[in-house]
């Protein structure tokens, strides 16, 4: 038996329970891993609340961890007991002292990088990689808008986007987070609780807009009435992320921390021939080669210093409920890690 966080009913942080579980032994193609550090992501909150549907109840949340291989399934080559490995994505279940994982879903962790750093950035970092390099390929001269610029993914998008030669505009909710965004390479910082971000983006870009918006906030930033927003924008009164885009711009909605955005009629995209996508990491690391390439580029940027990862908050695994409470209350910045 090992200890794990279990969810028996959907709801607030209080539904996260610390319990004994039996995980068994690895079968063919599987490994057993003793976790050293576990990353927290907003997708964990979505599953806990039922925004995203878990396969069944009860379940163990979590989609990111680093650990040591303690057993391998029959006939498996390329993995051995003692290897330090990391994974992000499926299967769910990282909020546990130990877990069983498909061997083809883990990647070797470079000895030069602290396991806690890797656990804090594996999902967020691979998300930043595919958002910037494949979903929309950011190039020198582009101007990009990053919402929640001081958050886990937002911080990495700002740093990486800056390194790619883009002009980075970031929105944050406080002066403290603005200071961090500046350190992370934001050229223009908008405190969205104090000023209208659409108006400011319009000023910063001289009315041209940005090539791409990376929006993990959702309802509060995306768009409440696209048709009305286009009219308001003409009057100099902004209303949402779509308005910030230039002609043929890309709206990338990859999260919804403030709730699901309202439906957008296709006609709202026609005014500027806009592109709209709702991507997920799992669809960009489908093959083993994609996974290794994505993780490899992330690790290289950490090792070279392009990406500076802040693990600003660590909690014991047993205190996962408190970690979720602080994350949802926007009391955290950077990455949050659970330690078994």
Plain-language structure description:
The model is unreliable at 224-238 (pLDDT under 50). The protein is globular. It has helices at residues 42-49, 115-135, 152-163, 175-183, 197-204, 226-234, 267-270, 288-304, 320-328; strands at residues 2-7, 16-21, 30-39, 64-72, 84-88, 98-102, 107-108, 143-146, 167-172, 188-191, 210-215, 245-253, 275-277, 311-316, 335-339. With 340 residues, it is an alpha/beta fold. The chain has nine helices and 15 strands. The strands form three sheets. Strands 3, 4, 5, 6, 7, 14 and 15 form a seven-stranded mixed beta sheet that branches. It has two domains: 2-122 and 310-339, Quinone Oxidoreductase, Chain A, domain 1; 140-278, Rossmann fold, CATH 3.40.50.720. Helix 2 (115-135) packs across helix 8 (288-304). InterPro entries: ADH-like_N (IPR013154), ER (IPR020843), GroES-like_sf (IPR011032), NAD(P)-bd_dom_sf (IPR036291), QOR-like (IPR047618). One of its GO terms (molecular function) is mRNA 3'-UTR AU-rich region binding. Residues 11-338 form the Enoyl reductase (ER) domain.
Q: What is the fourth-level CATH superfamily of the largest domain? A: Medium-chain alcohol dehydrogenases, catalytic domain
Compressed to H and E, one letter per element, the order equals: EEEHEEEEHEHEHEHEHEHEHEHE
User: What ranges have pLDDT less than 50 throughout 5 or more consecutive residues?
Assistant: 224-238
**Which value, in Å, is the CA radius of gyration?**
20 Å
Q: What do we call the CATH topology of the largest domain? A: Quinone Oxidoreductase, Chain A, domain 1
Mean pLDDT: 89
CATH class of the largest domain: Alpha Beta
What's the count of strands?
15
Major sheet: 7 strands, mixed
Helix segment tally: 9
- State the domain count: 2
**CATH architecture grouping of the largest domain:** Alpha-Beta Complex
Shape: globular
Domain Enoyl reductase (ER): 11-338
Protein name: Probable quinone oxidoreductase
Pfam families: ADH_N, ADH_zinc_N_2
GO molecular function: mRNA 3'-UTR AU-rich region binding; NADPH binding; quinone reductase (NADPH) activity
């Amino acid at each position: 038996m090992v200890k794990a966080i279990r969810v028996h009913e959907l709801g607030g942080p209080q539904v996260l329970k610390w319990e004994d579980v039996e995980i068994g032994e690895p079968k063919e193609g599987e490994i057993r891993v003793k976790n050293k550090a576990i990353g927290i992501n907003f997708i964990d909150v979505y599953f806990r609340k039922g925004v995203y549907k878990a396969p069944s109840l009860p379940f163990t949340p979590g989609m990111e961890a680093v650990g040591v291989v303690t057993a391998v399934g029959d006939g498996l080559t390329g993995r051995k007991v003692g290897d330090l490995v990391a994974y992000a994505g499926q299967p769910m279940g990282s909020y546990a002292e130990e877990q069983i994982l498909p061997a083809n879903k883990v990647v070797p962790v470079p000895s030069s990088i602290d396991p806690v750093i890797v656990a804090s950035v594996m999902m967020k970092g691979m998300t930043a990689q595919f958002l910037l390099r494949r979903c929309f390929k950011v190039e020198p001269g582009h101007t990009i808008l990053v919402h929640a610029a001081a958050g886990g993914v937002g911080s990495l998008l700002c740093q990486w986007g800056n390194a790619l030669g883009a002009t980075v505009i970031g929105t944050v909710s406080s002066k403290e987070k603005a200071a961090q965004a500046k350190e992370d390479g934001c050229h223009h910082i908008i405190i969205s609780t104090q000023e209208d971000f659409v108006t400011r983006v319009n000023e910063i870009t001289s009315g041209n807009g940005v090539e791409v918006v990376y929006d993990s906030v959702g309802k509060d930033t995306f768009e409440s009435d696209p048709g009305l927003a286009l009219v308001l924008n003409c009057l100099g009164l902004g209303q949402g992320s779509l308005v910030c885009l230039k002609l043929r711009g890309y709206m990338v909605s990859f999260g919804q921390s403030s709730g699901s955005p309202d439906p957008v009629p296709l006609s709202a995209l026609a005014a500027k021939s806009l592109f709209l996508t709702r991507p997920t990491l799992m669809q960009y690391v489908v093959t083993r080669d994609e996974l290794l390439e994505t993780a490899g580029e992330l690790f290289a940027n950490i090792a070279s210093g392009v990406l500076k990862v802040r693990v600003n908050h660590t909690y014991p695994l047993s205190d996962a409920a408190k970690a979720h409470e602080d994350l949802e209350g926007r009391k955290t910045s950077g990455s949050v890690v659970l330690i078994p």
